[in-house]
Q: What sequence folds into this?
């Protein structure tokens, strides 16, 4: 009877890397490279800066792999590194870069909702325009990247309770903008995002 090959978990691969198996790290890069780049693109809104930050994330992860606790999820750990590099980049950036119009559509399904691509894009554009920096950041980590509340808190350096508060406020504000848009065509802005009027 042939043996069934099983795919090693991220944590098992990280443990192999800790033991000196660099090929295992290449598998982790294959698994997370696109996702980390997508997250960083949304975070810094600059395609080329996101490429550089993605590379820096994996370089730092490789150098610090000995510190990774394999009883925790690798995803939370790698996103924490990416989030910290993004924050550092944004602090150094002179002005916020506008979104790159050549940027491809997200590979991930934000929020994993059953709605068509146009509505998802409008919702994420609205989130980018309407929400505070912290609200947008936790929303992306939680729903677009699929991190748990605890992982989102670690990645942002915020408490779990504050992350919950930010998510609640973000969802409420987006829901309000969405409801207003359903009742009128004028709520859709010129860039394909909903208006962010305070009520």
A:
């Amino acid at each position: 009877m042939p043996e069934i090959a099983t795919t090693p978990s991220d944590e098992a691969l990280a443990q192999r890397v800790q033991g000196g198996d660099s090929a295992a790290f290449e598998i982790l890069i294959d698994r997370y490279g696109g996702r980390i780049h997508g997250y960083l693109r949304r975070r810094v809104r600059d395609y080329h800066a996101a490429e550089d930050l993605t590379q820096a994330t994996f370089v730092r992860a490789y150098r610090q792999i000995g510190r990774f606790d394999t009883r925790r999820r690798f995803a939370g750990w790698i996103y924490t590194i990416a989030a910290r590099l993004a924050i550092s980049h944004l602090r150094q950036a002179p002005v916020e870069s506008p979104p790159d119009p050549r940027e491809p559509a997200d590979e991930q399904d934000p929020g994993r909702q059953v709605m068509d691509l146009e509505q998802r894009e409008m919702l994420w554009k609205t989130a980018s325009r309407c929400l505070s920096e912290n609200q947008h950041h936790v929303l992306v980590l939680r729903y677009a990247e699929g991190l748990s509340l605890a992982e989102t808190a670690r990645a942002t350096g915020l408490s779990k309770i504050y992350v919950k508060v930010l998510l609640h406020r973000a969802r409420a504000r987006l829901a309000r903008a969405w409801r207003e848009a359903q009742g009128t065509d004028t709520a859709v802005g010129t860039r394909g995002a909903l208006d962010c009027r305070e009520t």
Q: What stands out?
A: The helical segments are 10-18, 22-44, 47-63, 74-92, 117-130, 133-144, 149-156, 160-183.
